[in-house]
User: Fold this.
Amino acid sequence: GGSQGAASAAAGGAAAAAGAEELALAGTEGLEAIAAAFQFVQAGRFTVTLSHGDEIYKPDKRGQSSKIDAYVKFEVGRGSARPVRAKSSTIKNTGSTPSWADEEVQLDLMDPLSLVQEGNVVLNYEVWDRNMFADTKLGEGSVSVLRFFAAGAKDPRGEGMRHWLPLTLTPSGRRGGQAQRPQPAGKLLATLRFQPARPGLLVVTTFSAQNLRNMDMFSQQDPYVALELEDQVARGSTVPRGGTEPNFREEELEIRVTRQNWSKPLRVALYDEDPGRDDFIGDCLLGLLALTSLAPGGEGAVENTMQLQAGGKAAGQIHLGFRFYPAGELRLEVTEGRRLASRETVGQMDPYVTITLGGSRHPVTLRTKTDSRAGSDPVWNEVLTFDVVSEHEARIEVWDYDVFSADDVVGGATMSLLPVFKAGVRDHWFRLALRSQWGRVEAAGEVYIKADFTGPPGVRFPQRQPDMDSFDESERVARSGERVKDLVAKTSGGAGDGTGRDPTTGRASTDAPPSSGGEFDDQEVVDAFAFLDLDGNQHLSAAELRHVLVCMGELITDEEIDEMVRMVDADGDGQISFDEFRTLAMHPDPASAEFDLLVRGGDKEPADVATRAIEDRTAASGAGGRAPPPPPSGPGAALAAVGNRSDDVAREKLAREKRKNYLQRFASDQRLRVADLQRAWEKLLADRPMPAGGAAAMAAAGWSDLVSFQDMCDVFAAEPTGEARQLYNVFVDPDLGRVPLRRLLLALCSFAGADRSTRVNLCFYLFDDDKSGTIDEDELREILRANHLASDASQIESKARHVLAQADKDGDGQIDMDEFVVLASKMPNLLFPQLADG
Assistant:
């Protein structure tokens, strides 16, 4: 037995030494071998499943029968600043073969690269005997875990590798004046497994629940599901009178798994909604690693029934489905800015950059350092890293840091991520713009950003965007690849090395022309023009633009259509030729002064004019610190008018945005779902019964759905706050003096998590007064006005006519449910424009 243990220890020590030697190759093959070994090192959970030990004795009773209280300590990154430690349970009063019965010991490696010591990541393990005063070490050993990183990356759901882990122990004291050599001290049988942590989006489908605790003694309870992960809460819709067997109708809830929260449990909780405080029904905790190791998207979907607990007792079961969408890594290197518009009246600006992804549902904002006193030409050279799943745009903003007041925004730009998903890299000067207090869009300088994207193999980005083009890795290149120079040269328009940078200074060349971003090639422009040219006459008319935009659901007026044509129509014939269309499509910033001059054929270089406009504005702002005066008429008025629209259109846009913001805030504060909107309508009908017989009977009885501010608060059970008052005020009908409740309920539906089918049903539920299964032309106008947040019916008149022409096939002036469903499927944005972000 002793010789067998010695042989095992010697073999294990040799293997560990060989592993260390294999990874310490910096002097020979060197960096390539280390890079190959470390390419799989990532955050994740290292699990040791302890089976049992063998030939483990007290140091002074080697080979003798004795009892020990054995436990095992584990440590990864010994000698580093923050090693990760864990230990097993204690097996009391055991012999030389302690059994842990496959106990799992978990070590969460949040930052494994910080645990590297001498070119290796090592797991140290020690067996100890627990004593009353001081524990005794019985043996120790170590093993490199790099190969387990690789195995976990290739098969995240693998079962791990089973090994005998040799133990040695160095006797205390010295022999012959020298330290004693380690001696064999037994071995441990264990399974080692690494599960990588994958950031991404977890989509949980709620199906149904059974045998729930009933929290209402005298009626049916109203259950809903809530998912909780640290500070994230995803709340499902309430099932009115769902009782103990609710059907959640396959509602989807989203939870973002990040590099910081993957080790935390996901809490699934059920509550009974009550007017006061909601009652807790039961909950369960789920580990995230098993769910994030599913195959991407629908391919890896699984369903499970979870047991709920409340106070240690069974509280029912819930049936859930799980899908995981792994994130790709987007690295944005914010390099520098040039010709930034100054926001300082005295001294130099202190600029920094913020980049935001994710909309309102899962927003993530990162910022660079501040380049102090850099003025209009800062240098940051900082990389911001994002995990992206469904995001397809990034909002870039440059700010001027102020010590004693709020920071001033310098300008902003929107970056499409689609070219990065497709090509893998993109280097580009992004033109910044800022709307002045006079409503004019003004140039505000440029920012140079280098983008790199990598994603899991076979996964197309952006995910969960069925109406968008998506791209896998087939056309992507890494920045170190052979095609990078050509690709960068193509997308940046630079010369020399293809980066558009000055080879002597390393800064981006200030003479490099702006690029189109590589988003459209000539064939794509031709195809787009052919799609819009409905009559095939090689010109786009205002009527063709209006038709396409209305079908897309855009809230557009005749004045806006005319303005769009005017902006591009260089020859003044009232139509857009292919050359004019191509100029628009290939230019990076059609709202800029440069574009207007390009179309009009100005006699000065566009960049010079844009720069002079910025300098003039800056000088005017510096005179007394006051805002510049309104743009003058006469010479230069064309430049000042770029980006402007009529006052009426501008006011309507602002009013619509205000309504949207108040709706979004109110829906979020009240945690509204479609069921809440239905209950609000039912509450009004209970207080104000609707006479039978349709519109004529209601008119005769003087019935209406107009509500006062207090009525609105009552039906929603909302506090009469200032924000609620603001919402009410922006929805007051100027002709009627109060708010039509149905119009408000439909508008709120956009922010209550409703799908298209639910919104169709809600339209008929609210407006089919006589329950005939049809809605008439006036009711259709009310529906479109609510869904498009329009101030008056005239703004949706053309949409109403178009809907009737498309849907009312029998010409009776009525639309039934089937006709409405077909139209909603063919032209979803026309009936239900997307108002909520994300």
